């Protein structure tokens, strides 16, 4: 019986010695993966869409990733309507080189909830899955795209509620609008 108590005591000591991770208050992100799901939608199932699901890993020391609609509205009063907390720059491959596209409808947006449930500051880490739809036939607003076997890559950054900007990651290249 004493051996069991010593074992539990030793395990409790080990668990209590492991503290919280020491992440920077500036968000850090890394590439996880990209998945493309091609599906048919619409009334007759005639609209073909490539739904690209971008997964990135994140870490943040004070846990202030994500934003509510009210917090976003307050920040936009100060910083303007173009403020986004999940920023995606799109690059389209032409003649072997990637060119930055500046579409009418910007990709990216905002994570409209807090990634940490409590309001107490502290480290968080996890994975964000972000879906970007590419509807066949609706690519005119994206410069350099042809709608047939377009090769893209993304550059992604995050901003936290204090507007600290993460590092920028790039995805590997991928093909959409496969013919």
TrEMBL record:
Name of the featured protein: Lipoprotein
